[in-house]
Write a structure and sequence with these properties.
- The protein is an all-alpha fold.
- It contains 29 helices and no strands.
């Protein structure tokens, strides 16, 4: 198969009676093309590359290929020979196209979940791992074979039989994560589809979390994928949140702001449905009530509550979506009623979405709460410094500079703390920003840092002047000679 061929080009060559399998995207079309081409098994037999019993079975299987009932009858009547033949051929043939053809046949066979038992029982009889032969194929050099193998593994691992575990599971989850991170991976829909199958099972959710899977999903989602991949990725995040421990761990990632952007920007109902369902789980599943409340507040901060009303009006015939919207609306509204100014500020900083909301401009807020930026080992202050250093949004940097200036102005030891954390240098660097608003806010913040020194110096001089005046009043004649 020529490299770089488009899906449309491949489709135009297929016979009209070809049925596309369940593999998604490019792999789906390539699999259909592979299945439409015959393999000359006689030549393999004559060259003694395969045994006569393997030859007899694979020819019989080919003849039953277009009749699922006949195929299943053959598989179950000769289950041991079926697994033996496929694994023998995969292990002894090197030609890419033949390996691809065998994998397409196995993938097609596993569309009936009961057929997975054929490979499990064969492995059990031999005292071998059912996963090992397929995991080894992930090292093949051709992408088609590798991705067909990944799909087969996902089928086997999620068909209701004994689950993958231990080093096999670690290897497979790591492979999936690495494929997600692979630049310009044209098989991304297939990789995510594998995860959609795997993450339906709770044991696999924890395993994927352990290989840094959540951060990887969010990185791909933020890279500008098409709406179908958006749906698949958010689906994976949704099923992950059904595990309470995973849902609580997800608070460490900037998932809510990213999903909020997807929700607000998308026009696709199925993407909307997945985003809303995920938000519901982030409020409902964590056993830590304060964490669930913080998630709700962050959603409000990211304008989810405001958008839910529009969703309810637009998709009012979808009962499941309507129920999720109503539930979320109630929870987010309650969180707003209980919100105090420090909660609002903390959630805004943690979201990384700083705006000129009223709390930033309130002298009362800063008088009462400037020292709270020191809590949890200066967590909020460090976040502001990090935003100044890393954010590409001029508005965020401007507000962060302003807030640091207010912190120093209202907290007596603020300058010392700021210098210790490297914040003063970061603010001063922004005085050279190309954005005029950032330059102005950075300049004002630096002035507040310097004015803090002048105030301290003037108070010290005034104190010394008072002490000198008091001394003179006590001894107007000066010291005795």
């Amino acid at each position: 198969m020529a490299a770089g061929r488009t899906i449309e080009a491949i489709l135009s060559t297929l016979p009209e009676n070809v049925v596309l399998g369940e593999c998604t995207g490019l792999l789906q079309v390539q699999a259909a093309e592979i299945k439409s081409k015959n393999i000359n098994w006689q030549s393999y037999l004559q060259s003694q590359m395969i045994s006569e019993e393997d030859y007899n079975f694979i020819v019989a299987y080919d003849n039953a290929l277009n009749d699922p009932s006949q195929r299943n009858a053959l598989v179950r009547a000769q289950s041991n020979q079926c697994a033996k033949t496929f694994l023998n051929l995969l292990g002894h043939i090197c030609k890419d196209h033949t390996i691809q053809y065998l994998l397409v046949l196995i993938e097609d066979m596993l569309s009936d979940k009961e057929n997975g038992q054929v490979f499990r029982e064969y492995a059990r009889r031999k005292g071998e791992s059912v996963w090992a032969p397929f995991l080894n194929l992930l090292n093949r050099p051709d992408d088609i074979s590798v991705n067909l193998t990944a799909w087969i593994l996902a089928r086997l691992a999620s068909d209701g039989g004994p689950q993958m575990e231990g080093s096999d599971l670690q290897l497979y989850m790591t492979w999936l994560k690495d494929q997600l991170r692979k630049p310009d991976n044209q098989y991304l829909p297939t990789v995510v589809r594998c995860l959609q199958l795997m993450l339906r099972l709770d044991q696999y959710r924890l395993a994927f979390l352990r290989v840094d899977g959540v951060a990887t999903l969010l990185a791909v989602l933020s890279s500008g994928v098409n709406f179908q991949c958006q749906y698949q990725l958010v689906f994976c995040l949704w099923v992950l949140t059904f595990n309470a421990d995973v849902a609580e761990e997800m608070s460490k990632y900037s998932m809510i702001p990213l999903l909020s952007d997807v929700l607000i920007d998308t026009e696709k109902e199925k993407v909307v449905r997945m985003c809303v369902a995920t938000f519901r789980n982030l409020v409902d599943k964590p056993t830590n009530a304060s964490l669930a409340r913080e998630n709700a507040i962050q959603m409000v901060q990211c304008k989810v509550l405001r958008h839910l009303e529009l969703i309810g009006q637009r998709y009012n015939t979808d009962e499941d979506l309507r129920a999720d919207v109503d539930y979320l609306t109630e929870k987010l509204t309650l969180s707003v009623h209980d919100l105090n100014s420090l909660d609002e500020y903390t959630t805004e900083v943690k979201s990384g979405r700083l705006e000129w909301s009223l709390v930033h401009k309130s002298d009362k807020f800063w008088r009462e709460n400037a020292s709270r930026l020191n809590d949890n080992n200066y967590q909020l202050l460090k976040m502001l410094i990090h935003l100044i250093q890393t954010s590409k949004d001029p508005l965020v940097v401007s507000v962060a500079c302003h807030d640091i200036g207010e912190y120093v102005r209202h907290y007596p030891r603020g300058k010392h703390v700021l210098e210790t954390l490297g914040g003063k240098q970061r603010v001063m660097e922004k005085m050279l920003s190309e954005d005029p608003n950032v330059r102005l806010c950075a300049l004002l913040a630096v002035q507040k840092i310097m004015v803090h020194n002048w105030d301290y110096l003037s108070k010290k001089l005034a104190k010394e002047e008072v002490e000198s005046r008091d001394a003179i009043m006590k001894n107007p004649l000066g010291p005795l000679q």
